[in-house]
Structure formats: structure tokens, C-alpha cells
Amino acid sequence: MPEAAQATEEVAPDPAQVVQPAEEAIPDPEPTEGSELLDELRAQIARFVIPPTQQALDAITLWVVATHLQPAWQHAPRLAVVGPAKRCGKSRLLDVLTETVHEPMLTINTTPAAVFRSITEEPPTLLVDEADTIFGTPKVAEKNEEMRGLLNAGHQRNRYVTRVVGNDHTPRKFETFAMAALAGIGDLPDTIMDRSVVIRMRRRAKGETVRPFRSRRDTPVLHRLRDRIAAWARPLLDEAADLEPVMPVEDRAADTWEPLVIVADLAAGPWPRLARTACAQMVAAEAAAEEEHPSGARILADIRRVFVAQREVDSLSTEELLHHLRQDVESPWAEWGRSGLSARDLGAMLREFGITSGNVRLADGTQRKGYMRHKFLDAWRRYCPTVHPVDAGPAPSAG
Q1: Cβ atoms within 10 Å, residue 350
Q2: CA distance 290 to 282
Q3: Pairing of strands 125-128, 180-185
Q4: pLDDT at position 31, please?
Q5: pLDDT band at 293 (very low <50, low <70, confident <90, very high)
Q6: Structural domain count of the chain
Q7: CATH of the domain at 340
Q8: Are 312 and 274 in a shared domain?
Q9: Letter string b/e over residues 40-62, b meaning 16 or more CB atoms within 10 A of that residue's CB
Q10: CA-CA distance, 118 to 123, in Å (whole number)?
């Protein structure tokens, strides 16, 4: 071969030595006026309260703007502002929300009938402070069942309540659809929490400072910002109603978060990314908290750990299962009731998940009342998905 040809001949590189370029991150879309308004609103909220995480602050910001587009939404997300004790900033956050949301309606000591009559096709934003005084104990909650029903029904459009009105008791349908923020000590009823973007407030630590809220000084500033947000949002109603964004979560969580993600997509800039990050992380955090709640999936997760520790036996007697549950020093079962979790308590909890006890054959050949492992498999997959799938057994056949 001629030397010139040799000099120009290309040699294929060794694939093992080729350095692949790093995958480039997808750039954020160009920001709009809405992105700047969201930035400004987030900064204003952060002046007065310290949410538990940056994601929570982003979620609050998006929720406020979503109230100005309520006619576009199929679902009206609740904002559950909860904390373990007083002085966590819950009421202060409600002060800021009152001055920035669309048509705020404070419902302290407001009767359900008055709320029904205030909700129209252009609904207000319901703001409920001290919600623990409404739902805090079973006795009090029973008296306020109508308010809870209103808040549950109002999460989805076209869910009406019928009441008789006037001297002739004429039946009349009332609208319930409206966005709502509820602040209180401790968790709200499960049916409300499940329809909420949950903000778990904390007391400020030493060195964390906020600005005192003063109506005379701060309200005009917040009102001007609110009016600018409304002016930006209102022309986008039809566009917002038509959007179906890709969501990082599913089912009711997706329904609840969709308005916030749509607001972020309309605003562009970094907000679509921030909204989906907040959605994924906050929904996952609530799912983990639900698994730890004794009245939720905690009992299922702890029973799964017992079966795993017992090398996936086919069945356990009720007595043996209770023994292992009470032995876990980090679980609530040893102190459940007067003398620990009882067979009756266990049966009542598991019936909520469609699981019942029966006669089981033990390793020594005897029969006793107990639980078969295979009866838990479906509930484990549905309510405890965070544990390794090996613990839950093989997936069901598609056939």
C-alpha cells in the first residue's frame, strides 16, 4: 500500500477506550411572566413562614396560584397545613394565604349551610383555621360530619349535596367544588389528608427568623401581587383546562397535584421541574407516613416482617403472630390497649383490608386459629409497596 494511503487511512477506535459524552440535562423552558410571579410569591411566603422543605414552599406557591384558575380544574386540591403542636407557623401561613388566594372565605365557626350557599360556579377559596377543633376527637368530629362530607365531596367537580330549603322544604342541589386550605394540630381525617397537598410545619429552630406579619404594612403588598397573578392567570383558563400533563404519581395523588403541575407548566422556566420534584417527594413522604400509622398500613408492614423473619411460612397461629408483633420494641403493639394488641383488635384491623383468620395447620400438625400468608399478598402489594417485592411473594399471573 502506498505511504500516502497509509498516512490517511483511518483506524477504528477501540470501543473499550472510547469515552462517551455525559448525557446532557434537558434545559428548562424559557420562563414566562408567570415564572417571575411564582418566584416573587415564593419569596413573599418565605418572609413570613419557614416551611419544612424547599419542595413544600414550592408546593404552597403553586397551590396559591392554582386558586386563581379554579374553573379550569377537575379536582380542587386541599392544602393540609398540619403540625404536632402550637407555634409551628400554621396560622401565620393562613394569614399569607388569605391575602394571596382567589376570593378567600374564612370558615371559623361557619356553618356548613352557610358554606354551601357561598359556593358557586366561580367558587371562593375556603380557609379553615384550627381544624383540630372540628375534627380533633371522635365526639367532636361526629358533630361536624357534614363539614367533612362537604370537604370530601368538594374535591371533585360535579359532586353536589341536596338539602331542603324554604318553608315548603323544596329539595335543592348545592355546589361543593372549591379549593380549601385547612390548618390544625395533628393530622386531619384520613379522607381529607388523602385529597390534600400536605404541609407538615415545624417550630422554628434557634437562628431561624421570619418577619412578623402586619396587616397595615404587608396586606397592600400581597394584594398587589395577588392581582398581578390573577391578571396573568385568567386569560389562560381554557389552556389550563385542556392540558393533561405527564405526572410522576398516579391515582388520587395525580388528581390532587395536577392543577399545581399545570400551573408550573404554564409558567415555564424551572417550575415544571420543581413542581414534579415536589410532587414525587411529598407524595412518597406521605405514603411512608401512612405505612407507619397504626390504623393504616403499619399493621400490614409489621406482619410482613414477621412472616419474613419466620422464613415465609405458609401460616401462623393468631397467638404466635401476636407474640411476634408485641416483641418489636419499635412498634406500638405491645402497648396497644390495656395489655397489648389483642386477637380481636388484630382481626378488626385486618378486616378493613379483606383479611380474615381461619383454621390453619401448623408445623407440628396441629390446627389452630390463625392467618394464611397468601391472604396478605394482595394487600401487601397495594398498601406496602415500598418493601422489597421478594417479601410479598410472586406477582399474580396475568392470565
Answers
A1: 19
A2: 12
A3: parallel
A4: 93
A5: low
A6: 2
A7: 1.10.10
A8: no
A9: ebbebbbebbbbbeebbbbbbbb
A10: 8
- Which string of b and e fits 244-259 if b means at least 16 CB within 10 Å? ebebbbeeebbbbbbb
Cβ density class 132-156: b for 16+ within 10 Å, e for less: bebbbeeeeeeebeebbebbbbbbb
Question: 127 near 105, Cβ under 8 Å?
Answer: yes
pTM of the full structure: 0.71
How crowded is residue 37: how many other Cβ atoms within 10 Å of its Cβ? 19
Cβ atoms within 10 Å, residue 197: 26
CA distance 258 to 134: 28
The answer to whether 318 touches 362, Cβ cutoff 8 Å, is no
**CB 74, CB 157: distance < 8 Å:** yes
Interval 194-223 mean pLDDT: 92
End position of a domain, from candidates 289, 307, 325: 289
> Which residue from 276, 259, 279 is spatially nearest to 198, judged by alpha carbons?
279
Which residue is it, cell 349535596? 161
Q: Are 178 and 250 members of one domain?
A: yes
Which residue in 177, 117, 131 sits closest to 150, CA to CA? 177
Residue 384 placed within a domain: yes
Model confidence at 17: pLDDT above 90: no
What is the distance between the alpha carbons of residues 129 and 107, in angstroms, rounded to a whole number?
8
Contact 87, 203 (CB under 8 A): yes
The size of the chain, in residues, is 399
Sheet containing strand 196-200, edge to edge, reads: 104-106, 125-128, 180-185, 78-83, 196-200
CA distance 60 to 340: 41
Q: Give the E-state strand segments of 190-253 in sequence order.
A: 196-200
Can you tell me the distance from the alpha carbon of 298 to that of 232, in angstroms, rounded to the nearest whole number?
Answer: 45
